[in-house]
Specification:
There is one protein chain. The chain has 684 residues and is α+β, with helices and mostly antiparallel strands. It folds into 4 domains: 88 residues, Immunoglobulins (Immunoglobulin-like, Sandwich); 85 residues, Methane Monooxygenase Hydroxylase, Chain G, domain 1 (Up-down Bundle), CATH 1.20.58.80; 364 residues, Glycosidases (TIM Barrel, Alpha-Beta Barrel), CATH 3.20.20; 100 residues, Immunoglobulin-like. The chain is built from 17 helices and 34 strands. Helix 10 runs parallel beside helix 11 and helix 14 runs parallel beside helix 16. One of its GO terms (biological process) is alpha-glucan biosynthetic process. It holds the Pfam family GLGE_C. It is an enzyme of class 2 (transferase).
Length: 684
């Protein structure tokens, strides 16, 4: 057996991207810059190298020389922007780097006067081998042959021969190394999905509330798809990409909920949209494939989708696998539910919350029947123009079901995106993402202190980024945290700033921009919750009267569009500040990946204490920003255009009541003037 065929002579281990289990595939989104990494090492002191061999979905193979990471770790990395949707394949090749070994040894020995002629001859022999490799370009081979001859020229000056060791033409071996003792890792798969699977700004609203009117007799008239379509202009004006609708299906009458989750609904109370299944216009029961008659018809829904599309918005539809007592499933498929010993069907609970109007689906007795029905429902809505589904409580359904249903749908329609509303234990949340969900709600709403955010955001950008894409919703109909209840406008501003800049996908539920903060006593959800009643809002009046965050949300979404660094997940870097309530992080993208010909660097500094003024020093890792340590540079606040001269350590003052956060870009155009400040580095 030859040396070259010996297994694991150059060990290649801990290859990433990787999913938690071999049966799952790591994933990326179109345009994502993915770090490919591996541990590569060998015995002794000879140099090793690593090469990423990448095969695109079209079959094109490219090779990328990997660079060493922290000294002593034996970790290697190559970062590649993946712009083709589909299944990629990759492997890592580890090899003995003979040229690097020779250059290192030659520099030491020749300078010390030890084995000088021997070192020159070793180098010449290596170059002879390289010249014989027909895969190298002819001009390079000719130049290498010349260097080999000059290395053997004992009559040349010592200085001239020594300079050959460092000749720039030897950099040819970075791209095409002279390798032996190679070891290939197993070939891996990486699924690249469309860009909206990883990048987007979501806005949620209830179509029944848009255009709803209270009539003279005190009853309500529901909004419709036609009236809701009028709200789309405002959503688009704020720069959102996705409009998400809660369930639009008929709502059950049995055990219908009234205001604030009571069991005493009035005659015009609409009930919870998640209690799916109820009477259609002709009195017959309708389910997941129907629209609520108050909203209109399927044709009206398709018109709503077309209007959204014309404004650059995609429509996301709620997929809630549950039923009201009035759903056709209850009569046609009683085996899909849990029947208790007293003959009643178990309703949903999430203690202390009770949902008497909802029956959860039991997957134990007829999993194939349920699978077929859900697949039918998804395909039905796909035909109506829906390509994004927000899945309600996926953690209460079998993981294997989701793995199968998502694979089946994406095999026939790779552009369909599923968002998991998985506010559950970490093992299930992460496994749902690994099993196929393109996006996931996270614990973001409950991470509010500096320490919590630093740990949480770093984990999203590093630990789970190979398979979990976070959607940082700032609020939901179910979640109004104490931070928002008692933090005032500053809390809303800070949470939006962090959500919009820390991850490529974020979301807002309507009312957030109006600073809605009054909770039901003892709960973390809004009082007079829109889940149980109509809630029309006068957004235009709020903007006129200065009671709206809409303009700021639009600015944030505009910044996201203009700065490709914010469209990446894995590039977040936390920086140190001297104040326990001021967080600082950056997102940097080199010009090789921006598409603009210039580096893009964003620095976010936020005061997470919504009740105070904070003054502190921000200490930046300039290398993480693509800057030279110690040199000054200019930053510009992208919200108001102010500029300051910064360096490694910078004074910052953040007033929760006027300016609780900075979104700064590093200005690369040094010729532009900088506004003088009273204190070096001062930001306010």
């Amino acid at each position: 057996m030859s040396h070259e065929s010996l297994p694991l002579r150059i060990p290649v281990t801990h290859v990433t991207p990787a999913a938690p289990e071999p049966r799952w595939r790591p994933k990326a989104f179109e345009g994502e810059v993915v770090p490919f990494r591996a541990t590569v090492f060998r015995e002794g002191h000879d140099a090793v190298g690593a090469m990423l061999v990448l095969t695109s979905p079209t079959g094109e193979e490219t090779r990328h020389r990997m660079r060493p990471l922290a000294p002593g770790t034996d970790r290697w990395e190559a970062r590649v922007r993946l712009d083709v949707v589909g299944l990629w394949r990759f492997r890592i090749t580890g090899f003995g780097d003979e040229i690097a070994t020779w250059r290192h040894d030659a520099a030491l020995k020749i300078d010390a006067g030890v084995d000088v002629e021997l070192m020159y001859e070793i180098g010449a022999l290596l170059l002879d081998r390289a010249v014989a490799e027909k895969s190298r370009p002819a001009p390079i081979r000719k130049r290498l042959a010349e260097i080999a001859a000059r290395l053997r020229d004992a009559d040349a000056s010592p200085e001239a021969r020594r300079a050959l060791v460092d000749d720039a033409v030897l950099d040819e071996f970075a791209a095409r190394p002279l390798a032996r003792l190679t070891t290939d890792s197993d070939e891996r798969e990486l699924l690249v999905e469309r860009r909206r699977a990883g990048v987007g700004a979501w806005y949620e609203f209830f179509p029944r509330s848009e255009g709803a009117k209270r009539q003279k007799d005190g009853t309500w008239k529901s909004g419709t798809f036609r009236t809701a379509a009028k709200r789309l202009d405002g959503v688009a004006a704020m720069g959102f990409d996705v409009v998400y609708l809660p369930p639009i299906h008929p709502i059950g009458v049995t055990n219908r909920k009234g205001p604030n989750n009571t069991l005493a609904p009035g005659p015009s109370d609409p009930g919870s949209p998640w209690a799916i299944g109820g009477p259609l216009a002709d009195g017959t029961p309708g389910g997941h494939d129907a629209v609520h008659p108050d909203l209109g018809t399927l044709a009206d829904f398709r018109a709503f989708v077309r209007r959204a599309t014309s404004l650059g918005l995609e429509v996301a539809l709620d997929l809630a696998l549950q039923a009201s007592p009035d759903h056709p499933w209850v009569i046609d498929h009683p085996e899909w539910f849990t029947v208790l010993p007293d003959g009643t069907i178990r309703y949903a609970e999430n203690p202390p919350k009770k949902y008497q109007d909802i029956y959860p689906v039991n997957f134990d007795d007829d999993p194939e029947g349920i699978f077929s029905e859900v697949l039918r429902i998804i395909r039905h809505w796909m035909k109506q123009g829906v390509r994004i589904f927000r899945v309600d409580n996926p953690h209460t359904k079998p993981l294997a079901f989701w793995e199968r249903i998502i694979r089946e749908v994406n095999d026939e329609a790779p552009d369909v995106v599923f968002l998991a509303e998985a506010f559950t234990r970490p093992a299930m949340l992460r496994s749902l993402a690994a099993a196929g969900f393109q996006q996931s709600y996270t614990y973001f709403t409950w991470r509010n202190t500096k320490g919590e955010l630093e740990e949480f955001l770093t984990s999203l950008a590093d630990e789970t980024a190979d398979y979990l894409r976070p959607n940082l919703f700032v609020n939901t109909p179910d979640i109004l945290t104490e931070y928002l209840q008692f933090g005032g406008p500053a809390a809303f501003t800070v949470r939006a700033t962090i959500a919009a800049t820390a991850a490529p996908t974020w979301g807002v539920y309507a009312g957030f921009e109006l600073f809605e903060s009054v909770a039901r006593p003892g709960a973390e959800e809004a009082i007079d919750n829109e889940k149980y009643e109509y809630k029309p809002r006068d957004f235009a009046a709020a903007e006129r009267e200065g009671r709206s965050l809409a303009l700021y949300l639009g600015i944030l979404n505009g910044i996201r569009r203009d700065h490709p660094a914010l469209g990446q997940l894995r590039n977040l870097h936390v920086h140190h500040t001297d104040d326990d309530s001021v967080i600082a992080y950056s997102k940097h993208l080199e010009k090789a990946f921006t598409g603009t010909g210039a580096d893009d660097t964003i620095i976010v500094v936020a005061n997470v204490d919504p009740h105070s003024v904070r003054e502190t020093t921000v200490h930046l890792d300039l290398e993480a920003l693509g800057l030279t340590p110690g040199e000054p540079f200019t930053v510009e606040d992208l919200v108001d255009g102010e500029r300051w001269e910064w360096s490694t350590s910078n004074y910052v003052r953040l007033d929760a009541f006027t300016r609780p956060a900075h979104v700064l870009r590093v200005v690369r155009e040094s010729e532009k003037p900088v506004r003088a400040s009273r204190k070096r580095g001062a930001s306010a």
